[in-house]
User: Fold these one by one.
Assistant:
Number 1:
Amino acid sequence: GDTGDRLKDAMHRIVAESERAGAVVRRLRDFFQTGTTRLESLQLEELLTDSVERFSGRAARDAIQLTLAPVPACILHADRLQLEVVIRNLLSNAFDAVSKQPAVARRVRVAAKMEGPGRVCVQVEDSGQGLSPAAAARAFEPYESTKSSGLGLGLVISKAIVEAHGGSLWAEVGDHGVFKFILLVEEDAAHGSH
């Protein structure tokens, strides 16, 4: 009957999810074992602009006001693909967090500012409910996901990537969502790269 079908559907979904989980975990294991990080010099502004633009379609579709504040001119020595994964994860989480808000109150903002010499802080802020101290402490534990389908690996991976780049990533406790990460920048790149 009906209940049987629903159970079958649920089982299929669980199997599909766990297979997807397996693929993600395998890819990660390869990434962490081989440690293949390809470093290149890249402009922070270009990296953030590209990442934000990729979400502009989804922002328009979901009536989310997505903004990128002016980015300080600085050069990162980093793996572009890995940092794109971090920014995509944070933006995706921010979009999920604001989707429960009324349409007029859905805002996601990306900003960056220099934090002393050789360091830049990137912030992804959303108008969602924010994190309690407990939730912020748990945010980076594997499988700690408030999303029903999510595996909660996104933040774990993101943190590992940022730390592999010599930086740090954390969530701030507050009445709206704030994630920040610090990256090292090439000091005085104008004189450096000759």
Number 2:
Amino acid sequence: TASVEECSNNLGYTASGKPIIAGVSIAVDTKYWKLGTKFYIEGLGYVVAMDTGNAVKGKYRFDYAVFDRDYAFKLGRRDLKVYLVKEEPEEK
């Protein structure tokens, strides 16, 4: 969530400099993924790597952004299938 307890700031901005978008923003380990990388997570939908986090270490760990702390606890930790979304380059 964008709460002070879970973010490095209380403004809701991610490491990419963009605001958190609940249901779209995820945190990744930038050792493996660039900010801006797009994924599809089964059961959640399309997401974009916009943030990093102390607990997000490793190629297969992601942190899904929500705005409600109670909902975050309800979701909890899950093992879900995640697919890298590759975009075709635009033709000129």
Number 3:
Amino acid sequence: MRRVEPAQRPPWALDEATFLDRCTRCDACVKACPTRILLNGDGGFPMVDFAQGECTFCGECVRHCEPAALTPEADEPWLLKARIGAGCIAHQGVECRVCGESCPTGAIRFRPQRGGVAQPDLNLERCNGCGACFAPCPTRAIEVKAGLKAMEQEERV
């Protein structure tokens, strides 16, 4: 049986069950988001869509969440990390550095390759999961998904 992952919730969302219980689907967080990455998802619950832009972690969604389904109590807004997939055109010998140029934390750098194009090198420790690299990627080779530990386990498989 294949596990379906829940939609990516706004930053500082409580665990999925508590979030769904508390969220009244009032759209206050969606309307407050200055980068417009929050949309109404399944059942009218807010979700993140990085195709719209990036999260700046401004906290407006949290400030407007009256039912407290979003709370700034957590150290990190979420456990998302970027991942560069096989569809990356740099992996296929085409010069492209748009993800690195878009990354505000400098988590994506490019390693020169003798006789080839520079390859992306993603530093997961520096990646804050903001999604700034997602929309500019011309091949949609970047995913932004749940945390570092999950990705490390996945890479071992």
